[in-house]
């Protein structure tokens, strides 16, 4: 029979020790970023202070349905989500924490797959797990598994999401809507079949060389709420207008098609491997070239400019030649009924 | 690129925009459409930018849940309070009745289920011995589906509260409202696939204004508007087809027969407009045992359609746009809607709020 998580796995005794020894330490125990690392299983871990720059910290909790989706799983999502928050702050990720809350009865083999994915994404950026935690909840009190990760990174000078000036250019690092639409399509009630896969990926290796060029004023990862939400946040905080050219937003055909069927805009669903960059106009060509050099940035495009026409708002010049405001989405988009 | 995407082709759009500018009259010209899907396409694509100053394009009674009068919602709530399971479309849940919505009734413990189709409601009826009532709303597009269900021997515990409506009669009624000078109609493509262009003639041919059926892609809509303006310039107003790849003169005869077998024309109430002669469907007497109104004896209060301060009646009759309403985007938003046009996803207020249609750019 398939081995399953039981309440003993979260009880802090021998069974939990075995779980750590068999699943966690082999994957994460060899890497440390300080004198005391995960392998010591102490009450905390240490991290060596950087010689210069700023420490950047971020945290995120992850639940996703389904836990395994086309192109990824909750482990990859949790790692990439936190690593990318650091990346768009201009910070090289150093360590992550990993806390798992697991429903009793969850398959151990599924947990292994999730930890493998987490480890793979970490390896991409060379970060380590510093510490972690496991809790087990009785059946029905949690839907499968939830992960929380806190990330710590180092930036020469952290990049905010709002130090924007009129005349700056807006760059997207790749296609928009892949993750959100792949997940919607994977939900069984829609009976949809598609080749579409989530874009979930750690983007630091693409961002780092672009940062080296200089001229990046602001960055943001368009996750929950999608591109529409990220652009509006930037416009509001900086009190400028983001004028976006709809036709230049890279969108895959299957994403467009699903968007038509479900009545959900690709601009309002999550991306998990993309960045919005606001850059000095003089640096925009070089940054675009650098982003495109990386496989994750192959579809990077210049999509807009900063103006002062309607401070705090985003304007969409539509593909057909119209013009409208692109506002903050209200909440999670729901499919059209009629 | 798959073929459907060239319907947003900017070069062709510019050409149509040029044609529209040349054809547009110098005096104010008000075009009314009666379809939420049209409003969605117009607003999402920013198409009003293609219209020169004197040409105005407004949504009238195009959102089926928005025009459902309080009396019908009151009846659905009363049926639910009598113990039946009431099934309806999700959009209907929060539309205000005289005293609360179906959503409120559900919070009070009534059994109200949202369904995606009439067939889902029948499925629910098969799974229970309790009375199940399908609260059927919609125009000529959804009416045949309700008819098909009733002709397909539904279970004995199933009945229908029918609130189906017909668009051409409502268009004619709009023309008779005071302070509502309408110069032309952009007619709905979906409804027209069922009724054909011929479906408008009995009600509107004598009115001598341009009526052009339009599709839902940006270029479809611009093309239909150009046809309208050309009819006006040439003083040749008539019913015309700007959506020939989906619509013909006769419409869908199978659907028309389904409707005629089950329903007959009736005078029904429209929110914001009032009772319009022959504008709705009631079940024929041979189907009276499937009529929820016959099955339940209801004691309904005097209906109250209007919400104080809310200009939905004017929006639904194309006498105002959402931003004319003092509540719009202030106390009335899709998260806490005051009037029906902010509730229904096809309502003009909801669409303007969600797709940045507040100001002309």
Secondary-structure map:
The complex is a heterodimer of chains A (338) and B (361).
Chain A lengths: L13 H15 L25 E9 L5 E2 L2 E2 H14 L4 E12 L4 H18 L2 E10 L7 E11 L13 E4 L5 H9 L17 H10 L2 E5 L5 H13 L2 E5 L7 H10 L13 E4 L4 H10 L7 E7 L6 E4 L5 E3 L13
Parallel strand pairs in A: 4-5, 9-12
Antiparallel strand pairs in A: 1-6, 2-3, 4-6, 7-10, 7-11, 8-10, 9-11, 12-13
Chain B lengths: L9 H14 L5 E5 L2 H9 L10 E5 L4 H4 L2 H12 L3 E4 L13 H6 L4 E3 L3 H9 L5 E7 L4 H9 L6 E7 L2 H9 L8 E5 H7 L5 H4 L6 E4 L3 H16 L5 E3 L11 H10 E8 L3 E10 L8 H4 L16 H5 L23 H4 L4 H7 L7
Parallel strand pairs in B: 1-2, 1-7, 3-4, 3-5, 5-6, 7-8, 8-9
Antiparallel strand pairs in B: 10-11
Helix pairs in contact in B: 1-11, 7-12
How many strand elements of chain B? 11
Mean pLDDT of chain A: 93
Uncertain spans of chain B, ≥5 residues at pLDDT below 50?
Answer: 1-5
The computed structural class of chain A is alpha+beta
Proportion of residues in extended strands of chain B:
15-25%
CATH-derived topology of the largest domain in chain B: Rossmann fold
Strand order of the largest sheet of chain B: 2-1-7-8-9
**CATH architecture field of the largest domain in chain A:** Alpha-Beta Complex
CATH topology of the largest domain in chain A: Phosphoribosyl-aminoimidazole Synthetase, Chain A, domain 2
End-to-end separation of chain B = 29 Å
Question: By CATH's scheme, which homologous superfamily of the largest domain in chain A applies?
Answer: PurM-like C-terminal domain
Order of helices and strands of chain B: HEHEHHEHEHEHEHEHHEHEHEEHHHH
The oligomeric state of the chains shown is heterodimer
| Total domain count of chain B | 2
Give the C-level CATH assignment of the largest domain in chain A: Alpha Beta
Most strands sheet of chain A: 7 strands, mixed
- The CATH architecture category of the largest domain in chain B equals 3-Layer(aba) Sandwich
